[in-house]
Write a sequence for this structure.
């Protein structure tokens, strides 16, 4: 007798379960229920409709119920909300959203893919005003776009600096609106560390987005947003992108077990505490293979893999669940940003002993058109050298570099593995020693104690304390901008002028992106200097780290001029 498979929710999780089950079992009865009007759409592309990168909201819809039926023999029912799971009877209660009529549907196996809902804090007055929007589906993005166009809105506030907030802010700005992004924390994009996030802050600022960090929201009105500090921000429309919470109400009412994170608890095969009910996607708790702890991950890629594995498990097909590492990428105007694994905050929270390097090599050979710096931060475990995470930001292929690291992490790779990794090379695509190889070499020097470094975050204090900072760039480069109080001894003159550097005090070296200062450091160490430090990120990193706060807080600069070239 053929299986009767019911699926709650579509998009990446539910639709992938349905498609995989059909490929395995031609005879199964498969029914998907979606309370909205679209069962399959590109939720990751939603913000790009605001700038018309995606020309029409209807383009976001990938498949309609008729296509599901004709191509896959899957019964996709839109406008139907599942309101209850009756586990003893193995049925679900389904409500027709338009008529309110309720029916029961029996199942042999049930799959839950309800997703996650946008957070709307009750503490914010006016959070349910008609000019406040969230972005979850095609209906949401079309409603926001219709409102701002119909009402000739000029000023828009985006609350929240995560993926959705950043993409909404970028696309609204590209669409010609005045955009203010409000973030309660001291940085946007928390998967990135604060030192890397400053590069994104600079890009947002330079592209005309007003970025307010460390700013909670008190209330939302018809034409302005009031912050917790009393400041008012002009906004006739507001996009609420504070975060999401897993949709667990249906599972809770049915008595299914939740995990420590508040999401649905599942086993190795994405089976819930009921042997006939599976769950996948944004609503479930996942296992982090680096921290060895449960967590949540709201990404389409993992949801699709979970869906396939769950469908396979239903038919007895084995699956090797290694857990997640959390890889992601985002475009921020002219920059591409990507990250994987653990950042510094996550390492500290998990009690992992770690270190990191921050390098800025070129993303391709400098003679080639389009060559640009690639800011790359590599985090590794101390003393094993096991790779824990990485973050990359630049105009080039940041995602390519992070994909390499993500692969190594999932294979338990170390710095030695990364150093020897043989990657594609052509001047138009990379350098012979790629960004990731370069980072591994620097990290191994740190791991094995060949030299010492100070973080880019510590340079302001060094300047304040009048530390001895040596800039080894050539005089012409030095004149274009340098750290205040720094002494210029070019690498081309370094060995002849080494006597100018005292041996009885710490010496901090830097150049544009660390390579020349590293050579100067080794020369000093070879000549008996034992208090020598390389400044991680060097001058380019310092400028990027200092710029945004200098511009917005009007604090005194520690550089004579910013130089981002």
């Amino acid at each position: 007798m053929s299986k009767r498979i019911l699926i709650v929710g579509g998009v990446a999780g539910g639709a992938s379960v349905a498609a995989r089950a059909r490929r395995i079992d031609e005879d199964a009865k498969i029914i998907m229920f979606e309370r909205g009007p679209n069962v399959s759409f590109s939720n990751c592309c939603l913000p790009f409709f605001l700038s018309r990168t995606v020309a029409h909201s209807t383009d976001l819809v990938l498949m309609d119920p008729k296509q599901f039926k004709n191509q896959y023999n899957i019964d996709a029912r839109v406008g139907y909300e599942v309101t209850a799971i009756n586990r003893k009877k193995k049925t679900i209660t389904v409500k027709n959203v338009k008529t309110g009529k309720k029916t029961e549907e029996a199942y042999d196996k049930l799959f839950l893919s309800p997703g996650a809902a946008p957070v709307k804090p009750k503490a914010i007055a006016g959070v349910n005003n008609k000019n406040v929007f969230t972005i979850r589906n095609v209906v949401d993005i079309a409603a926001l776009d219709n409102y701002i166009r119909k009402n000739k809105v000029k000023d828009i506030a985006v609350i929240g600096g995560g993926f959705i907030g950043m993409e909404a802010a970028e696309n609204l700005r590209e669409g010609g609106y005045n955009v203010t992004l409000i973030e309660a924390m001291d940085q946007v994009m928390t998967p990135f560390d604060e030192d890397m996030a400053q590069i994104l802050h600079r890009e947002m600022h330079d592209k005309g987005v007003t970025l307010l960090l460390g700013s909670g929201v008190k209330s939302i009105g018809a034409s302005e947003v009031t912050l917790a500090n009393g400041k008012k921000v002009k906004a006739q429309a507001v996009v609420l992108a504070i975060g999401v919470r897993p949709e667990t109400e249906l599972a809770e009412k049915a008595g299914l077990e939740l995990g420590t994170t508040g999401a649905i608890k599942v086993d190795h095969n994405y089976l819930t505490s009921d042997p006939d009910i599976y769950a996948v996607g944004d609503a479930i708790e996942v296992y982090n293979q680096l921290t060895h702890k449960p967590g949540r991950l709201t990404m389409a890629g993992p949801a699709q893999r979970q869906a396939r594995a769950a469908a396979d498990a239903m038919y007895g097909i084995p699956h090797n669940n290694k857990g997640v590492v959390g890889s992601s990428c985002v475009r921020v105007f002219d920059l591409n940003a990507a990250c994987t694994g653990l950042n510094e905050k996550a390492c500290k929270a998990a009690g992992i002993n770690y270190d990191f390097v921050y390098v800025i090599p070129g993303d391709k050979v400098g003679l080639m058109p389009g060559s640009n710096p690639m800011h790359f931060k590599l985090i590794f475990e101390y003393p094993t050298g096991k790779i824990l995470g990485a973050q990359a930001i630049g105009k080039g292929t940041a995602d390519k570099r992070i994909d390499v690291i993500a692969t190594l992490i999932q294979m338990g790779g170390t710095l030695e593995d990364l150093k020897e990794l043989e990657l594609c090379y052509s001047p138009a695509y990379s350098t012979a020693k790629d960004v990731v190889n370069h980072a591994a070499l620097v990290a191994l020097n740190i791991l094995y104690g060949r030299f010492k470094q100070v973080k880019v975050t510590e340079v302001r204090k060094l300047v304040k304390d009048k530390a001895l900072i040596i800039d080894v760039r050539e005089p012409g480069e030095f004149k274009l901008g340098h750290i205040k109080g720094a002494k210029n001894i070019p690498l081309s003159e370094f060995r002849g002028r080494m006597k100018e550097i005292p041996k009885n005090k710490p010496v901090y070296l830097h150049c544009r992106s660390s390579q020349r200062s590293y050579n100067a450091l080794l020369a000093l160490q070879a000549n008996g200097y034992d208090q020598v430090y390389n400044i991680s990120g060097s001058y380019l990193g310092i400028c990027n780290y200092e710029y945004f706060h200098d511009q917005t807080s009007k604090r005194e600069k520690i550089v004579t001029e910013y130089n981002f070239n």
About this structure: The CA atoms of residues 199 and 266 lie 38 Å apart.
